Amino acid sequence: MSDEPAKEEPKSRMAKLLRNPQLISSVLLGIVGLIATSIWQYRSQQTQKQQAAAAQKVAETQAANAWKIERTDILAKNLETLAQTGSASADQRYGVLLSLTRADIIDPELAVSYALELGKDNTDYMVSVLANTQNKDYQRLLRAYTLSCEEKYGATPPLDVCNDKLTPRSQALSALVTQEVNAALATSNMTDPGPLVLLRDERRVQSDIAQMTGLFEETLDDLYDRRAWDDLDRFQKFSPGAHLVASLVLAAAHTGEFVSEDEAKLLSTFHAAQTKWLIDYLASKACDPACKGHLLDVMVSHYEEAQGDYDKAIRALIESPRAVSGPAISNLHSRLLWCQVDDSDLIPLRDHVLIPAAQDLMKGKDATARDDVISLLALLPDSAEAEKVLSGNDAATKLFRERAQIAQHQRLVPPATMRKTSFCAKPGTPPAATP
Question: At CA 428, angle to CA 422 and CA 434, rounded to 5?
């Protein structure tokens, strides 16, 4: 028997495996192969996905290009119809334009242009097309809104300049704005404000305030008549420009109906709040002298309707230093000189604003403001009341008579630019003030 000790067999599987390097190599090679195969398969799938996405994109581009070509072809075939004018072709143009708009074949800007042209012949057709036009340019609608002489001056004399054939179209645009604003206010967060986008830019609102108040007047009057206080509050809180338009319109929204005592108090409080906000806004830095001039124009044209709500604002403005009130005084001077203020507005404006302002300024030290108000009084058709205010002040009386003579001469021989817009030539216009 051999004395050498017998070798112990490995007891664990790992120990047995380590004694077989060939097996280990085979296993490792297998694992590496599986990993490589998996990576190759993953990359192949990614490549196939990218190729499929690229092919789909190419197909979509080709389809879009084909649709653009088809749209262009369809539009080209109908341009001749859309380019027609006159009421005889209104039905045909409406059918074509509405079909193109609903099918999203025509560009929104082009649809709005054709709709506005169609509105000259049929306002119902125009509103129908515009209501079906998505993403329309509301600035384009604002530019198309033309102020009537009643809206611009508070009077409609029998002159050619006031014979506006586009008034029905403007009224239809205002009605459309009312519908779309009510729809926007009915939503919880107003994600689509509709026509209210016109009121976001405060400076733009100030410069176009006459147009803005005209376009939104029906909307605000409707909310006021329905006593929709929550909607009115949301309208005003949309932007400072929206609050400005609302205050101007609502200050003149006295409907004169009989109401209960409680409701009368509510309305009185409401109008007092609108008046205070407007006075504060006129005195703020947000409204520069040019802004004040635009606002005064609107207030004078609707002075009687406001039933005194504009008195404090206008008086504070015209009694301000020239640096603040210059453009406003110039605008009012031009309106009075060319008789562009209706008697229903002129008489209360004289009695409640101009004469009281003159009385205050006669006691003050601001000679420039005093002379400005005297110049305005000299433009009034009835100088008797003004003479009473100025009696006892020779310098003021002399200035008044000089300005009255100048005004009389200018009205008799107006410059060429004012001959068509001067209301002094209309029948029944009182003569200019004479010393």
Answer: 75
**Cβ–Cβ < 8 Å for 248, 209:** yes
Query: Per-residue pLDDT tens for 21-42?
Result: 776 777 777 888 888 888 888 8
The token duo for 350 is 């004289």
CA contacts within 13 A on the Cβ side of 334: 14
Q: Which residues contact 238 (CB under 8 A, 6 or more apart)?
A: 190, 193, 196, 199, 200
How far is residue 304's CA from residue 343's CA, in Å, rounded to a whole number?
A: 10
Question: For the chain, first and last CA: distance in Å?
Answer: 160
Give the CB-side neighbour count of residue 61, counting CA atoms within 13 A: 6
Please write the tens of the pLDDT for every residue from 40-68: 888 888 888 888 888 888 777 766 665 55
CA quadruple 396, 401, 406, 410: dihedral positive or negative? positive
Length of the chain measured in residues: 435
Structure tokens at 207: 């410069």
For residues 315 and 328, give the distance between their C-alpha atoms in angstroms, rounded to a whole number.
11
- Contact (CB, 8 A) for 337 and 411: yes
What's the CA gap between 265 and 268, in Å, rounded?
5
- 335 in Cβ contact with 370 (< 8 Å): no
